[in-house]
Amino acid sequence: QVQLVESGGGLVQAGGSLRLSCAASGRAFSSRAMGWFRQAPGKEREFVAAITGSGAGTDYADSVKGRFTISRDNARKTVALQMNSLKPEDTAVYYCAARPIGYGATSYQSTDFGSWGQGTQVTVSS
Fold first, then answer.
1. Which of 6, 27, 39, 116 has its C-alpha lying 20 to 30 A from 81's C-alpha?
2. How many CB atoms lie within 10 A of CB 67?
3. What is the pLDDT of residues 44-88, one digit of tens each?
């Protein structure tokens, strides 16, 4: 297991930006793909973005493509989500997630991620 702690959420006006960070503890961080998911009230958790263990490959949900950027620093064991041009529909609790050791490929499926952070609230006002 890896411990994940998110930070950086908050309240922002539509069109604004936020940067979420996720700090990981545990071993073999660079062998794990990392992802961000979100859950809005009354809705199911949905995929936002993922990055391969090496950081060379990324995937995004269509709803955030071109606005959000996922990145990672394996030396510091951190992953970030830069969110620009935020919309009210981006309002949700955002979760950082890690795949198991050795699973360096990205995935859209939350069930492929075995470790989760506690979540950070992002609220976008119109």
1. 27
2. 15
3. 999 999 999 999 999 999 999 999 999 999 999 999 999 999 999
